Amino acid sequence: MTAAASPEDQRTPADVFGRERELERLGAAIVPGGSALILGPKGMGKSALLSAARRLAFQGGFATGLAAVTDRNEVTLVRLLESLGVPAAAHRGTRTLVRALFRWCGTHRCAVFLDDADRGNTGWLHTLRRLALETSASTFVAARTGPADAPDRLRRALLSGTEVRLGPLSHSAARSLARSAGVPAELVDEVVRRSAGVPVAIVEMAKRHRCTRYRIGGRIAWDLLLADLRLSNRL
Ligand SMILES: Nc1ncnc2c1ncn2[C@@H]1O[C@H](COP(=O)(O)OP(=O)(O)OP(=O)(O)O)[C@@H](O)[C@H]1O
Ligand SMILES: [Mg+2]
Question: Are 104 and 198 found together in one domain?
């Protein structure tokens, strides 16, 4: 379960490298009634960018809530309400939870951030669309794209004005991420090259390069390491 960012997390500027233009566009959508859709393949940094946008909204005085969408609407709603600071335990059942969410968003200047929206079912997307139409909440949604995904479904649901599509990081942003993830200076270029700018590849290689099982004859077996990342479904 994705933990909601605490107010502390929202204040702390986490380093998000190389997404300045995207953040600027998202920042412009942090207005009452604004909405944005972040799209990108697995591990490209959607959640990181969504959290960064949430911090911007928090700093802009919005009440913010962030939740990862699940295929169970009740679970998603409880996560979102709790993240907004609304005690969800008092509410039972999807309809009651939806009512609580709408009431809250109708009476606060709030921004909601939904991650993994590609997992949302039609009922959830309908709720999100109504939320955007019936309250002045700004809605930010991140969704994974891939051969089986249909971003059109989300576009229709969201009335989104702003769409941000994420691709690989620039060389210099990838280097910054590799360094901040703890890749030793002499390995940064290798990690950046092998990652093809995909953030999750950099972060995972940073974690794993220390493991002895990837070392053969004192050298890191990058192909083995990457194959392992793919097998464990991280890439
Ligand atoms: N621009 C960035 N700067 C710094 N770190 C980043 C950046 N983008 C992603 N990361 C880090 O890379 C890792 C993968 O990113 P993230 O989880 O945001 O990808 P994602 O697109 O949400 O993946 P998924 O499709 O699996 O949900 C995380 O550890 C994240 O903090
Ligand atoms: Mg994610």
Answer: no
